[in-house]
Amino acid sequence: MSETVQDKVDFLVIANRLPVDRKVDDDGSVSWKSSPGGLVTALEPVMQRKGGAWIGWHGAPDEVVKPFHHDGYDIHPVPLSAQEVEEYYEGFSNATLWPLYHDCIVEPVFHREWWDAFQKVNKRFAEQAAEQAAEGATVWVQDYQLNLVPKYLREMRPDLRIGFFLHIPFPPIELYSRLPWREELVEGLLGADLIGFQTPGAAANFQRLARHRPGVTAARGRAHTPDGRTVVIRDFPISIDSRGFHELATSEKVKAEAAKLREDLGHPGTIIFGVDRLDYTKGLRQRIRAVGELFKEGKLDPHEVVFLQLATPSRERVEEYKILRDDINLLVGQINSKVGSIANRALVYRNESVPREVLAAMYQMADLMLVTPVRDGMNLVAKEYIACRSNDDSALVLSEFAGAARELKQAYMVNPYDIDGMKATIMKALTDSPKIKARKMRSMRRQVFDKTIDVWADNFLTELEGQ
Ligand code: ADP
Ligand code: G6P
User: SUPFAM superfamilies under this entry (predicted)?
Assistant: First the structure.
């Protein structure tokens, strides 16, 4: 990290999260840690390749942090007060928009003070970008937390090319219409030149909404606004640095780590693996229940099989996340108290985040991967598993409600709400012939190595800059 940053840049990313999070320990010492979630995993390699600047929040309330240079690009931290963290981040972003955009799996909460804070903070991000962008620069706004930034930024700097990418799903109009501020949010996004979504369905949902705005016509992926602009609306399924993950997972160090982890788990014949943020969209309740029942019914033998589940703590002060954490702890305890033994735990559950090398080792050793969200924009974990696991005798069980299901068609598909169906599919994935599994893995590998994060970024930026 160095303190020298450029005055103005031609390429800017704005996201609520920065790639690194500032942590202040009890003794006052400061450290930086990798930030959680798929947005950072996807964008880090793009920024390392392209350079420019990343504007975002550094994860600590009430702290002003100076800009710095990191990994080949500049970082401009945007400060948030403790009250803004509560109202803009935990409130409007993660208790209003997050559940609303994920099909109202839990009830979205609407508060007028949260909406006020959301507008105020979005203006601050836009002002920071307007400050840093060179004449005619390309600015790429990321995700639902910054839904209003395209409009604000266009008002401040009409010379810029503005792209927006939504990393999460976009709901059907029937659900979206509950939002008291639906008009303002649609108008916020229409400030962009290009709006990208994970799937064609999400893009179609937005286009339908845009058409309802007075003076806007929208059809075939283009919206025409009353001020005479054309906004392109399209899907750009996001991906990962597949080769980077593969190289890491097949390095000698990580292979040795995988062997050690297998040893630590008691050398089971089969390892089933799951890794997610601890989020109610990830289908953890259903997944753990399904595997627990397979153990209880004797279909899985705890002397032979271990289910390892990691769950990174996430948004811990938001009510629904607290409820989820308690529910999962209880569920895991109930299962482990009935199956396995002191020496052989059937279910190994860790509520923690692990370094990238350890994660790669876990993917490398996992015979069966469970990715069962009840709704997910894409789900990068599914792609990471395919990139990391080099053994053909492997299987991916994937929810049909993840964006990734449109691309990884050879996965063992499940409806996570159908516990019996999920149990049957897990057993099939474990018992199918090595030939069938190898064919599936090879086909998914082709997909993941062809459609990498570089392809995603280049497709988006070519479309944006070509307009
Ligand atoms: P989301 O963005 O909703 O969290 P994704 O599956 O798209 O879901 O991305 C999650 C990212 O976070 C992946 O890159 C994954 O490797 C990482 N991740 C999730 N859980 C952990 C964990 N316990 N430790 C380390 N990395 C994790
Ligand atoms: C998802 C969202 C990202 C978010 C990430 C982690 O990937 O799409 O915008 O950064 O989850 O969540 P957090 O609230 O910790 O930033």
Answer: UDP-Glycosyltransferase/glycogen phosphorylase
